[in-house]
User: Fold this.
Amino acid sequence: MQKDILGKALLDFFNGNYSEDIFTETSISEEDVLPLPYLFREFKDMPALEQKALQLAKGKVLDVGCGAGIHSLYLQEKGFEVAAIDTSAGAVKVCSLRGIKDVRNCSLLDLKNEKFDTILLLMNGTGIFGNLKATPKYLTHLKSLLNADGQILIDSSDLLYMFDEDEDGGFWVTSEKEYYGELTFNMRYKGKTSEEFEWLYTDFSTLHRLCKENELQCKLVQKGDHFDYLAKINLK
Assistant:
């Protein structure tokens, strides 16, 4: 729990000890605030892309990176069978206290010998892939967890807008990474800072290409208001 920045913050908020928010910083941006109440939002307060993903859910659902359980709770209350997973022990404890029936402290790659009809990866779901090089490994594992007619609902953003545009319409990409959507990320809460970790934002065309290379179909479901999108991935 010592390095579980997210988990400690979620537990504090759930237990009524809310006094400050999480601060985040990336390799291409300055420090920003992640308000804790936002992580406990209800369906009516969710972005349109998240609402759309929840409306498209079917069958047995896997919620990857469940956080405080907002998506799992909504679907569970609608009668869905939901398995919620998170690598944050604190987040899993909060989900359990909030009444999520099946919540597990594990990573996506830890799941074996199970099948789902819907796999949710929301709030920049491509983030857990870490970088482009690791993405095929995750896509292959996701394939192994899908029923024949199952679906992966995943969102992300094209970060090209964060770089300067030149007179010819091109962009000055200053990132030292192989791909401009590969970031180094950390979180700070109540004087403690997490270890840096890799986090991936993927533009749709790149996600589509990677899916095709790994024998998956990838369809754009909906665009958001700020260079973000929701995609649906199916088995071929």
